[in-house]
Amino acid sequence: MPTARRDVGMEVLDGKLYAVGGYSNGFLSSVERYDPAAKAWEAVAPMAEARHSHGMAVLDGKLYALGGYKGDDDGPLSSVERYDPAVGAWEAVAPMAEARSDHGVAVLDGKLYAVGGLNEDDGFLSSVERYDPVANAWEAVAPMGEERFDHAVAVLDGKLYAMGGQNYDGGHHRLISSVERYDPVTNAWEAVAPMAEARYAHAVAVLDGKLYAAGGRGHDHRLSSVERYDPAVGAWEAMAPMATARMKAFALLM
How far apart are CA 29 and CA 220, in angstroms? Predict the structure, then answer.
């Protein structure tokens, strides 16, 4: 990329890869887009607000950036911006009810979910909000059974999964291996098989009807390990590890 950035948001839209915000000697509002056909990056319109540790998703052909931080002395954001590639511009949409960073974001049944994260007032979050783009409004749905941030979320077979992450229990740092699954029909979460390895800041992807969790950080080191969850048998299995241990990476299908 032309700009080195960490705690960045990444998503794929119309076959192109977007790098949104992040941090690089300052908090970034800039956005860069990679075209794999041209093998080149280009700058596109920046967000109205600089943000890092935010959530990203694509819904109805538009790119959403949710929450995050905008500065060292500022708490998490509740603001949400939406990028329309047809006009090449960002616009503000309804903010989340709860400011959050380091949260999970996913799209399920045409709606956007913001899951868990960090909040300056409430600390570690189990709360979940759902955005309806037609109504331009957020509503609370059932919270997770466990507070978590730096976790990963994904949608598989019409259900939303929240995997791993971290929190603090009695002042002690706690890494999480547990996995929860949300059913929008019943508006309820249930525990499913935990990962073999507790991890946070990991990448997740869905491929051929199975869920992959890759890398992240364990108790005292970055991870190269990869696990795969098969919903048909309700179990995780170890896969070949990555060549390089990495955290805060992304797994995206193009």
Answer: 32
Q: Which of 106, 192, 112 is nearest to 153 (CA)?
A: 106
Q: How does pLDDT run across 92-105, given as a tens digit for each residue?
A: 999 999 999 999 99
**Rounded Cα–Cα distance for residues 152 and 11 (Å):** 14
Two structure tokens written together for 119 = 């909040």
Q: Under 8 Å CB-to-CB from 68, ≥6 apart: which residues?
A: 9, 21, 51, 52, 53, 54, 55, 76, 77, 101
Determine the longest span between alpha carbons in the chain, in angstroms: 52
Asked whether the beta carbons of 165 and 145 are under 8 A apart, the reply is no
254: three-class secondary structure by DSSP? coil
- How do residues 155-172 score in pLDDT, each as one tens digit? 999 999 999 999 988 778
Interstrand relation of 16-23 and 123-132 (parallel, antiparallel or unpaired): unpaired
> Contact at 8 Å (CB) between 159 and 183?
yes
Q: What is the pTM of this model?
A: 0.95
pLDDT of residue 181: 98
CA distance 214 to 45: 31
Quote the CA–CA distance of 71 and 26 in Å, as a whole number: 8
pLDDT for 122 equals 64
